[in-house]
Design brief:
eleven-stranded antiparallel sheet
Length: about 250
């Protein structure tokens, strides 16, 4: 074939192959399912790669517990047990009574009231700055004699509200409030901060006992307060404790 004939032959138009389109890389999910993934506490679920828990090399930070109160805080603590006992009926238990009696009579009879408060609701490592015992007196009787009463500490915290009697009552300890005059009705309160602080740093329970200061049965005199069993919570005895950082 002649050259000029070759020049007349139209060669096919060759187009260079176009480069492959750039594909957006897929996000990789290390978890088997987005629905199965639960973000660690305090984090939100984000789109993309999730930090699955339990996979080697992934550190899951545990939640930080709340910090204790930074400043002073006041709590109201109701008794876990209270009951009165009387010498005239030495084997009777009055733990279910809605009233607490304290005083004496010419029967002869001596009446005491025991209370026990838990201190576990106060966080550890606190300073007890103030602790007061509150109780609501609704009846006062006196025929003669002196209307003074003592609040005593009781070191034995094992007495039972449903089993305590005059015959098995725990022994009284130091007098915390001496010669308190109780001759009117209404709310009374007494500061027992020092003993509460001691028990808070000990077994975190405090037992107390109200008694007439002489327990002389020559006279008729007593007072009656609402107990923890009384239907209206606002009238029940309680311990109010203010605590602060050390």
């Amino acid at each position: 074939m002649r050259r000029k004939d070759l020049d007349l032959i139209r060669l096919p138009f060759v187009v260079a192959p176009l480069p492959m389109p750039l594909l957006k890389p897929r996000r990789v999910c290390l978890s088997t399912s987005k629905k199965d993934y639960i973000p660690p506490q305090g984090q939100t679920r984000t789109y993309g790669i999730y930090p699955p828990q339990g996979i080697k090399g992934v550190v899951v930070v545990p939640p930080v517990p709340p910090a204790p109160p930074a400043g002073p805080e006041t709590v109201k603590i109701y008794p876990e047990a209270d009951a009165f006992v009387q010498s005239y009926y030495p084997d009777n238990n009055y733990g279910s009574s809605t009233a607490c009696y304290v005083g004496t009579s010419q029967a002869p009879n001596i009446l005491r009231t025991y209370l026990r408060f838990p201190l576990t609701s106060i966080p550890s490592g606190r300073d007890i700055t103030l602790a007061k015992l509150y109780f609501n007196v609704y009846s006062v009787y006196f025929y003669s004699g002196t209307r003074w009463y003592d609040l005593c500490f009781v070191s034995n915290d094992t007495w039972g509200e449903g089993t305590i009697t005059w015959n098995n009552k725990p022994t009284l300890g130091a007098v915390l409030i001496n010669d308190a005059l109780i001759d009117t009705t209404g709310w009374k309160n007494y500061d027992i901060t020092s003993q509460v602080e001691t028990e808070y740093n000990g077994d975190k329970k405090i037992s107390l006992c109200w008694k007439h200061y002489t327990e002389d049965t020559s006279y008729w005199l007593y007072w009656v307060a609402y107990s923890k069993e009384y239907a209206t919570e606002a009238d029940r005895p309680y311990l109010e404790v203010t605590h602060a950082p050390l």
